[in-house]
């Protein structure tokens, strides 16, 4: 601030010494010797204060200059005191809107900025701005400077939107009054970019930093510090923008940003600079999100090599890099390498850090996940629990790290099938998120999503859908409609609909997920392969097996390009393709794929891993389809042995295996062993479930059927009735399981010779099925066969034939001409025509039935029944030798497959005796008839019609 001429003349005459101090002080300013300058001005001020009035403006000016000098020395308390004294004088001596007052206010504001009192900074800048607005044109530089400083103050107070607003107003003025390359424009662009970064709007940040850099590059040489600084800012902004793109699911843009950031850092940094390594790490992880795990690993290894050149082998950066590489190996399915790298990372962290460090907790958690990938679920649980214990010691109970780790702990419990514990973990995580986050935060949606998944594991599929839809609602508010999270939700919703057997809904959601993934991901991304895979499986549920195989093969083609030959995902595809070939009845080809899958699983998993057991089971099914029941039995027993190492003896997985083994024994005709295994299943279920649980009723029903096969019809009736009692308590009257029980009770009454009740129960079952199933459903056909048998037993052969014919019409539409069920149907039609004495038609149907049933893959017991009836037909037609031939064939099968004391064996023995009497082979006839009677007396009620018939026959032969 200039002194007046008059006052200087006065000083020249009166204060020559003060004037000299003033001049000397200015010279020290030019030399940046600020303490000397202050000394001179303070001496000058002392003289002025003696020579002038206390409030003279020139005294204020001198104090003001001293204040400026203290600011340059960063002695802000002294500077503030001086500026406030000067302002006090100016306010007394100058008009209220004088520019000097505005300048003093401005300087005081800047001192408050340096003192970090941003509220006072803002207040004084706003006062200065009001004066400047009155004194200057709207586009004056002082207006722009004040706007910039007000924006700066808002930024320091955390109000970044206001900061951007004021800085943008300043920018408009600067762009009007300065050349395009002016430094004020570049710096303002950079500051606006920083503010956008604070708002986490990294896209805008990048845009402003790019504009600032372009100006700096025009103003300076490429190696000018300002250009380097701008490049550094842009690299950091691109990095932040890339991270944001990752959160938003735009993985391609994320990769692009990190690649640009890396290119800048490689330009301005030394080749082995750690910042270059950080960029390489980000590029690697971007490739990971895009499903290119080999590229991910490559970039992470490049970054690690740079870190190793800059830091000691035990530096935290080395440990972090090892952790990331381990995770990448996990993505590639090399779980042993994954665990090895994580162990190395943990060893470094444990040397460098406190035992309760978050870094140690993080690595422990990742190691737990690695053990989970290896199928070592107890170890997984242990490590995640250790991680959680650390987090709970160092963080508040509602910290996000605790919530995340609870979710990983839930995964471990889920792998152990401890779904109640899993649910507790997920609900605790949700309560943390709910208490600490906005209701529309993505983590709220993720937490709802995981709770829904547990409901799925607990078979609460309707509840699962409720939670998934809640999660979807949040995701749709937060993310674009094509975000990967939304695709994942759609997949899980499809899974829920699959479990509800609503396959059309399942397909709809899977296809929506695929469309999103095709729009947002590279064509060979593993998630696209996963979608193709699940769609293929859904076509299998819809029995469109050609499309099933087509989509599974498309998925496999992608996976082969991405993963090594021994990756678990390759094995998953091979197994699914094998199952698809099994569905199209090409079990030989199915076995090729299933064995390839098993070989991979056996390389990468622990011996008792679920995938091994599941694949062995699938191979067993294929051998069963090929009627190689001995191999199937050995494989199922292997599955049981694996499960017994993993699960509690009363776990449902154990009972499931026991049941499957029982089924194979049934296929082998070993009903005694089948019964033994089914009884073991029932014992487990009775320990596990409520007495009225559906699993109990299913087991009772299955045991009843086995007793029927064993010829113990009273036990058959008892168990099937017990099953019905439970089902009637828990199910609606028209439920399909009620119909199954009614039908099976009807069969038991038929075996016991109570034919009116047989017909009654079979008709009740038929009425339910008719209401709930399609008219041509295979179960309708089976029900008609059972009703036909009842009519036949009651001697109503016309109704018997009508029922059999209706059943045959249905089955002809469903099955191939040489299918087992077509052979069975033709056998029943042959019997019906025989009962009606239409022997020519009966013979034709029996012959066609035998052509089908004699195939080695069909159950021998079915063949024996038709041979028996065919023998009876020949007896009726007086072809005794042929009758004898067919009956002996039937007897040989029955004695070998159902037992020498089975009621069906007794029927064939009796028929054989009748033919032998007619051929005068009396000793043989007597022997066979006595054996028949012994069996029936032992196995059937005293009033059974077949027992009475045998007794009457013996009486007629005078035995």
Tag the structure with descriptive keywords.
959 residues; 81% helix; mainly alpha
Protein model, in words:
- The protein has 959 residues and is mostly helical.
- The protein has 46 helices and no strands.
- The N and C termini lie far apart (145 Å).
- About 1% of the residues have low confidence.
List the helices and strands and how they pair.
Layout lengths: L4 H10 L1 H15 L3 H18 L5 H16 L3 H18 L5 H16 L3 H18 L5 H16 L3 H18 L5 H16 L3 H18 L5 H23 L3 H18 L5 H16 L3 H18 L5 H16 L3 H18 L5 H16 L3 H18 L5 H16 L3 H18 L5 H16 L3 H18 L5 H16 L3 H18 L5 H16 L3 H18 L5 H16 L3 H18 L5 H16 L3 H18 L5 H16 L3 H18 L5 H16 L3 H18 L5 H16 L3 H18 L5 H16 L3 H18 L5 H16 L3 H15 L6 H17 L3 H18 L5 H16 L3 H18 L5 H12 L3
Helix pairs in contact: 2-3, 3-4, 4-5, 5-6, 6-7, 7-8, 8-9, 9-10, 10-11, 10-12, 11-12, 12-13, 13-14, 14-15, 15-16, 16-17, 16-18, 17-18, 18-19, 18-20, 19-20, 20-21, 21-22, 22-23, 23-24, 24-25, 25-26, 26-27, 27-28, 28-29, 29-30, 30-31, 31-32, 32-33, 33-34, 34-35, 34-36, 35-36, 36-37, 36-38, ...
Please summarize the sheet with the most strands.
none
> Helical region count?
46
What would you call the quaternary organization?
single chain
Strand content: under 5%
Helix content: over 70%
Q: Determine the N-to-C terminus distance.
A: 145 Å
User: Structural class, please?
Assistant: mainly alpha
Number of strands: 0
Radius of gyration: 44 Å
Stretches with pLDDT under 50, minimum 5 residues:
5-9
Shape: elongated
Mean pLDDT: 89
């Amino acid at each position: 601030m200039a002194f007046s001429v008059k006052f200087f003349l006065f000083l020249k005459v009166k204060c020559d010494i003060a004037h000299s101090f003033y001049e000397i002080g200015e010279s020290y300013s030019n030399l940046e010797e600020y303490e000397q300058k202050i000394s001179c001005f303070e001496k000058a001020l002392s003289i002025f204060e003696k020579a002038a009035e206390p409030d003279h403006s020139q005294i204020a000016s001198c104090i003001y200059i001293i204040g400026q000098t203290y600011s340059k020395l960063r002695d802000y308390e002294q500077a503030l005191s001086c500026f406030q004294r000067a302002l006090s004088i100016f306010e007394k001596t100058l008009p209220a809107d004088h520019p000097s007052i505005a300048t003093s206010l401005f300087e005081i504001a800047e001192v408050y900025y340096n003192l970090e009192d941003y509220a006072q900074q803002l207040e004084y800048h706003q006062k200065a701005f009001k004066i400047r607005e009155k004194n200057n044109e709207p586009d004056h530089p002082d207006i722009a400077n004040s706007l910039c400083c007000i924006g700066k103050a808002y930024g320091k107070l955390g109000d970044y939107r206001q900061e951007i607003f004021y800085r943008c107003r300043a920018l408009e003025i600067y762009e009007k009054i300065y050349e395009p390359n002016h430094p004020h424009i570049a710096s303002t662009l950079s500051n606006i970019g920083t503010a956008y970064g604070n708002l986490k709007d990294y896209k805008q940040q990048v845009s402003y930093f790019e504009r600032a850099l372009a100006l700096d590059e025009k103003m300076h040489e490429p190696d000018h510090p300002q250009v380097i600084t701008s490049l550094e800012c842009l690299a950091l902004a691109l990095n932040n923008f890339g991270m944001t793109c990752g959160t938003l699911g735009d993985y391609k843009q994320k990769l692009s940003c990190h690649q640009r950031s890396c290119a800048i850092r490689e330009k301005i940094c030394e080749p082995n600079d750690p910042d270059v390594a950080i960029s390489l790490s980000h590029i690697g992880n971007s490739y990971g999100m895009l499903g290119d795990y080999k590229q991910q690993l490559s970039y992470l290894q490049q970054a690690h090599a740079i870190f190793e050149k800059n830091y000691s082998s035990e530096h935290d950066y080395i440990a972090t890099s090892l952790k990331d590489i381990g995770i990448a190996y996990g993505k590639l399915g090399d779980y042993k390498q994954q665990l090895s790298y994580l162990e190395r990372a943990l060893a470094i962290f444990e040397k460098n850090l406190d035992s309760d460090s978050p870094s140690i907790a993080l690595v422990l958690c990742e190691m737990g996940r690695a053990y989970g990938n290896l199928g070592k679920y107890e170890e997984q649980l242990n490590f995640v629990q250790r991680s959680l214990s650390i987090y709970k010691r160092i963080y508040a109970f509602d910290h996000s790290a605790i919530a995340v780790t609870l979710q990983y702990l839930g995964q471990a419990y889920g792998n152990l099938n401890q779904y109640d514990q899993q649910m507790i973990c997920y609900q605790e995580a949700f309560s943390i998120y709910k208490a600490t986050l906005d209701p529309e935060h993505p983590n709220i949606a993720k937490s709802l999503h995981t709770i829904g998944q547990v409901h799925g594991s607990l078979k609460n599929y309707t509840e699962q859908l409720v939670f998934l839809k809640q999660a979807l609602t949040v995701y749709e508010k937060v993310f674009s409609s094509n975000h990967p999270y939304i695709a994942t939700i759609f997949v899980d919703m499809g899974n829920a609909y699959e479990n509800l057997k609503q396959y059309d809904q399942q397909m709809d959601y899977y296809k929506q997920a695929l469309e999103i993934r095709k729009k947002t991901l590279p064509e060979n991304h593993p998630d696209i392969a996963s979608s193709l895979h699940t769609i293929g499986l859904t076509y299998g549920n819809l029995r469109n097996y050609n499309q099933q195989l087509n989509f599974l093969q498309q998925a496999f083609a992608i996976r082969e390009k991405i993963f090594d030959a021994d990756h678990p995902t390759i094995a998953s595809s091979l197994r699914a393709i094998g199952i698809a070939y099994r569905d199209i009845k090409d079990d030989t080809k199915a076995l090729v794929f299933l064995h390839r899958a098993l070989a991979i699983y056996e390389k990468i998993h622990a011996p008792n891993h679920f995938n091994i057991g599941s694949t062995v089971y699938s191979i067993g099914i294929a051998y069963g389809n090929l009627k190689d029941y001995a191999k199937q039995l050995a494989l199922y027993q292997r599955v049981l042995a694996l499960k017994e190492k993993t699960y509690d003896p009363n776990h449902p997985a154990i009972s499931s295996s026991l049941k499957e083994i029982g089924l194979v024994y049934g296929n082998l005709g070993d009903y005694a062993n089948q019964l033994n295994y089914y009884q073991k299943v029932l014992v487990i279920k009775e320990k596990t479930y409520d007495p009225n649980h559906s699993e109990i009723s299913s087991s009772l029903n299955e045991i009843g059927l086995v007793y029927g096969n064993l010829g113990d019809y009273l036990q058959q009736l008892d168990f099937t009735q017990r099953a019905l009692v439970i089902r009637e308590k828990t199910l609606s009257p028209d439920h399909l399981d009620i119909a199954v029980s009614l039908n099976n009770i009807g069969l038991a009454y038929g075996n016991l010779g109570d034919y009116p009740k047989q017909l009654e129960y079979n008709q009740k079952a038929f009425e339910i099925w008719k209401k709930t199933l399609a008219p041509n459903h295979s179960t309708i056909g089976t029900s008609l066969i059972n009703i036909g048998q009842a009519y036949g037993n009651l001697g109503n052969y016309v109704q018997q034939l009508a029922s059999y014919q209706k059943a045959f019409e249905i089955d002809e539409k469903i099955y191939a001409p040489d299918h087992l069920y077509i052979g069975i149907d033709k056998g029943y039609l042959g019997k019906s025509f025989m009962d009606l004495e239409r022997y020519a038609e009966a013979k034709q149907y029996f012959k066609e039935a035998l052509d089908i049933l004699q195939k080695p893959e069909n159950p021998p017991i079915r063949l024996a029944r038709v041979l028996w009836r065919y023998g009876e037909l020949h007896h009726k037609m007086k072809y005794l030798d042929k009758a004898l031939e067919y009956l002996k064939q039937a007897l040989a099968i029955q004695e070998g497959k159902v037992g020498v004391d089975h009621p069906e064996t007794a029927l064939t023995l009796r028929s054989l005796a009748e033919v032998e009497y007619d051929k005068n082979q009396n000793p043989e006839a007597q022997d066979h008839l006595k054996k028949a009677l012994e069996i029936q007396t032992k196995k059937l009620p005293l009033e059974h019609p077949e027992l009475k018939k045998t007794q009457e026959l013996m009486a007629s032969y005078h035995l």
